[in-house]
Design goal:
The chain contains 9 helices and 4 strands; from the N terminus they run βαβαββααααααα. It is an alpha+beta fold and 203 residues long. Bound molecules: glutathione (GSH).
């Protein structure tokens, strides 16, 4: 199977971490949807990465579908709990973390426009989502070791990918100082090879 993504994509990183945690072999195909020569739309009509291409050429997207497929593809280290209540809790954390990343992408895209074309109101609205999401994640994590339950799972992976992406797109936000418990969580996640090996390159 192959995973199409970029080294900096936070959603791609989520899929790559899950592949590594599940010890599933794959080819990493780097293709940036923004490049003129991109082939991503041939695999995903939405033109977004990550896309997982199975050996029978079935294409899976988006990252939430990919991680669910992967978690079921191998019994090694389950990352999405079977129990409905806990599973929904984990998916909710994932939605919050992915949503935070979506807002970071939107702010970064707006800030790449020429200064006179930037929409300050749009930036402020997206920044509000980031600030509220981080506060909620930090408050809900509190002093616990992991985001949900007693064990590391997909909720921690999703939050870790959102935090790692903040480092490259919003280095001035200083989320570690604002939320020491998130800093502690990310430090712990970086002790795991799948996290360390997928650190996004600095922009
Ligand atoms: N909800 C999607 C989001 C995927 C996404 O936005 N990927 C970005 C890269 S990080 C992308 O491909 N952007 C290109 C575009 O939107 O045209 C997922 O979880 O996979």
């Amino acid at each position: 199977m192959k995973l199409i993504a970029t080294p900096s994509s936070p959603y791609g990183r989520k899929a790559r971490i899950v592949l590594a945690e599940k010890r599933i072999d794959y080819d990493f195909v780097i293709d940036s949807p923004g490049d003129a020569a991109t082939r991503v739309p041939e695999f995903n009509p939405l033109g977004k990465v990550p896309v997982l291409v199975l050996d029978d050429d079935t294409t899976l997207f988006d990252s939430r579908v990919i991680v669910e497929y992967l978690d079921n593809a191998s019994p090694v280290g389950r990352l999405i709990p079977d129990d409905t209540r806990h599973r929904i809790q984990v998916r909710r954390w994932e939605a919050l973390a992915d949503g935070c990343t979506e807002a970071v992408v939107a702010v970064a895209a707006e800030k790449q426009r020429p200064a006179e074309k930037q929409n300050a109101e749009r930036i402020a609205r997206q920044q509000g989502k980031i600030d509220r999401a981080l506060k909620a994640i930090s408050e809900e994590l509190g002093g616990r070791a992991w985001c949900t339950g007693d064990l590391y799972n997909l909720s921690d992976i999703a939050v870790g990918c959102a935090l790692g992406y903040l480092d490259i797109r919003m280095p001035d936000l200083n989320w570690r100082k604002l939320y020491p418990n998130l800093a502690k969580l990310y430090e712990k996640l970086l002790l795991r090879a799948p996290f360390k090996d997928t650190l996004p390159p600095k922009a």
